[in-house]
Specification:
Two copies of one chain form a homodimer. Chain A contains 16 helices and 18 strands. Chain A is α/β, with parallel strands linked by helices. Chain A folds into three domains: 71 residues, Winged helix-like DNA-binding domain superfamily/Winged helix DNA-binding domain (Arc Repressor Mutant, subunit A, Orthogonal Bundle); 249 residues, Type I PLP-dependent aspartate aminotransferase-like (Major domain) (Aspartate Aminotransferase, domain 2, 3-Layer(aba) Sandwich), CATH 3.40.640; 103 residues, Aspartate Aminotransferase, domain 1 (Alpha-Beta Complex), CATH 3.90.1150. In chain A, strand 8 and strand 9 form a beta hairpin.
Chain lengths: 482, 482
């Protein structure tokens, strides 16, 4: 039975339609800061509503601070705050070995974050709309049709040769010339990082990490019974060379782990000169470095940043990565280029999960071979850059005074320092009640630092729902400042 | 340029054709023991060769002991030795905690075993001819077409609900009534076993294992820094209840691992009464049991053997399995039903490889849902039973006097005890030179036992090449007895 609306309901409905239309135009960048909104008459015609309804909607948008009226002229998209938000200060942790004790805290934090309907500001995954669905499905069907025996058979470590060849082929971009036999395929970067760490250190050993750093790295260190030594970082240039050198002089550090290219959570990029300086120090002491280059392909500048491996004359660097942020998280295809640790890493790979599934390997190899990856990457980088910029602007506008933000040069995560006294765990809990996920800062530290920090992710297309989520987050944060 | 054969070459070629034809008919069971060979005239007509050539070929086959002449009657396939080969004796290891030190010995043993062209008696994989290629490819294409977003997205632990439902649906056959939420999907059984062990024990802890047992279990124990306590087994009924009870009284054992249904390497099946008795003892001491049920679906009798889980009133059993021996090794889809250890196993799964690849999960779920699995299993069980029987007969005929064999009631591996003094590592090395792979017995023990044992696998269809491989293996073993 068709529903009959009362006059009032009808009015409310039409009026919301106007608001939605404007929000969509903003989200799609059809309307930018300073642009004039469509005239009352034009909008009224376009949506087939009365001029009074449009007027009322525009006035409401003005009340929300999205729109301003200019006398004798009309309604305009209000200018955003021009001041670039301040950066968080460089970090200064004590470089002492610490046993990590997350237990099951982290998994419980994320237990509700992946539920459909939750605004995904807390989950560093690419939205499926951004993934190369068509090309990948075509590659998958081709593999299924032409290579049925290989899809069913074990693809023994080091993994599919064709895939390793495609990865090696792209190693020049990472600043290094490697062949297929320099790579081992893994079940995602998680496995690559875990077996790399096991190849170079033992339970009880001290591992230097950036502070803040990706919590999964801390979880792996915890799981392996190792200790973490937190090293100072700069919000722009990442790992601090002097602090690392000092820590290496005072603590018996067995390995260094770094997310050099677009640190998770800060988005910092270690400049090439610093990468080289760090490796010079490590080479003298013959200490291995494990790098997680999972965001390296997602640079916003013209050229891809080099990996540590580019400056590695001694085979001390183990570079780990995966296609989870660029092609498809569900494929679980990662890799490691372990330098002089090739043999122990290969053995560990065989031991922990024997082979990696064949179909995902063959399909990604086919997709890379097709040449579609580079075109896809160009689109993806643009999307992430725009989404991240939208997120930064929205946070700068909506969050309490005194909030500081990083300015990532790649990837899609943003590190937000809230005013002192705001507990990010409270914000996380309050936000989840409103179906918004955020990642509290403490899990990026081995010692419970960053209590007033959160990580926000821009992996999903920017839309009204995301914008609304950020506004509400800002209100929740504001409420916690009092 | 067509090659012109000399008269002698031509004769040799034709004559080999006859020998090949007879061997093929034997391999395909067209000719069985006691059957008359085609008459000289018939074979001569069929292959278009002279009667003299056929005669010469038949005489050669007689010389090889494959054929016998019966006066006035013709050539017959010679009867095989009627005596059932003896079983290996029950094992009697000392039940003391031992640190395992394989290092990279095992991976180097297998490094040449998977090379194409090698006769695969050493690798416990199903041949691709036996796998449900058509049905699986159909399922894969269906998933690719209808569920593109899911194929690309993370399928977070505990894994795809549809797959868990299909596995749960089949749990009645394993003697137990479980639901989808009792299962966690893993990257193969290897990962399931490794995280199960990590959930119930810590480095330094003593773990009871069958002697002999699957070497991968020993490698996992080694990798986790735990100790193995070898327990006596019977070649038919597996783990000895009294020996286990005694070991539990004298050693502080933290967990038991068992391949109850068709032990690898012996093929032994622990009777249900023994399973129940073992669990009664473990329940009193609240000690968990991890079972590897990877061969359970491959029973030769009418009904599937129960799992330990069927007798587990207290949630102490962690049942692990995979579809690597039945559907496709390359899919790397396994599972664990961890009883009361669900939460810690789930956390470990998230930690070691986060999700398992989505496509293999979705495809196997689709294949199971289609109902093709049960029909496929019936064919597969018949094939494995026949292949294993052919292998047993061939070994019984070709191997040196004093060789003992197990009589597996399921699975596809055979445990061969060579005469005392024959070193299986030598046999392994000699065989590999002739492109035949075997698995030496010592790696099935934590303490270097079973030096004069080998494991042979019947995962590939029985053909001339396999038969020839076994004959040559027997000759090599014979040479090592002197």
């Amino acid at each position: 039975m068709p529903q009959i609306l009362t006059r009032n309901q009808q009015h409310g409905f039409l009026y919301e339609q106007v608001v939605a239309q404007v929000n969509q135009m903003i989200a799609r960048n059809t309307l930018c800061v300073g642009d004039r909104l469509p005239s009352l008459r034009k909008m009224s015609k376009q949506l087939n509503v009365s001029i009074a309804t449009v007027m009322q909607a525009y006035v409401q948008l003005e009340g929300q601070g999205l729109v301003e009226t200019r006398p004798q002229s009309g309604f305009y998209i209000k200018s955003r705050p021009v001041a670039e938000p301040s950066l968080p200060k460089p970090t200064r942790p004590l470089p002492l070995p610490r046993r990590i004790q997350f237990g099951d805290d982290i998994s419980s934090l994320f237990s509700l974050a992946n539920v459909p309907g939750v605004i995904p500001l807390g989950v560093a995954n690419p939205a499926h709309e951004l993934l190369p669905s068509k090309g990948l499905t075509r590659a998958l069907k081709k593999v299924a049709s032409l290579r049925p025996v290989e899809t069913m058979s074990y693809c023994y470590p080091p993994g599919d040769f064709g895939l390793r060849r495609q990865i090696a082929y792209r190693s020049m971009e990472r600043g290094v010339n490697l062949g297929p036999d320099d790579f081992i395929i893994t079940t995602g970067a998680t496995e690559a990082l875990s077996i790399s760490l096991q190849a170079v250190a033992r339970p009880g050993d001290a591992i230097a990490v950036e502070s803040p750093t990706y919590f999964c790295l801390l979880q792996i260190i915890e799981h392996l019974g190792m200790m973490a030594v937190e090293i100072s970082t700069d919000p722009d240039s990442g790992l601090c060379v002097d602090s690392l050198a000092q820590a290496l002089d005072t603590v018996d550090i067995k390995a260094v782990i770094s997310v050099a290219n677009f640190n998770n959570p800060t988005g910092a990029l270690i400049p090439d000169t610093n990468k080289k300086a760090i490796l010079d120090i490590l080479a003298k002491k013959q200490i291995p470095l494990i790098e997680d280059d999972i965001f390296g392909d997602l640079h916003f500048s013209q050229t891809r940043p080099h990996t540590f491996k580019a400056f590695d004359a001694e085979g001390l660097v183990l570079t780990c990565s995966s296609f989870s942020k660029t092609i498809a998280p569900g494929y679980r295809v990662g890799w490691v280029s372990p330098g002089r640790y090739f043999e122990p890493v290969l053995q560990l790979k065989q031991l922990v999960s024997s082979a990696t599934a064949s179909i995902p390997q063959l399909t990604i190899a086919e997709f890379l071979r097709s040449g579609l990856y580079e075109r896809h990457l160009m689109r993806l980088r643009r999307a992430y850059r725009e989404q991240l910029e939208q997120l930064r602007l929205a946070v700068a506008e909506s969050f309490p005074k005194g909030t500081r933000l990083t300015r990532p040069q790649g990837g899609f995560v943003l590190w937000v320092q809230l005013p002192r006294g705001v507990d990010a765990m409270d914000l996380h809990a309050d936000a989840l009640k409103q179906h918004i996920s955020v990642t509290p800062g403490t899990i990026f530290s081995a010692t419970g630092k960053y209590r007033n920090f959160i990580r926000l992710c821009a992996g999903s297309p920017w839309d009204e729902k995301m914008a609304d989520g950020v506004v509400r987050l800002g209100q929740l944060a504001q409420a916690l400042t009092s």
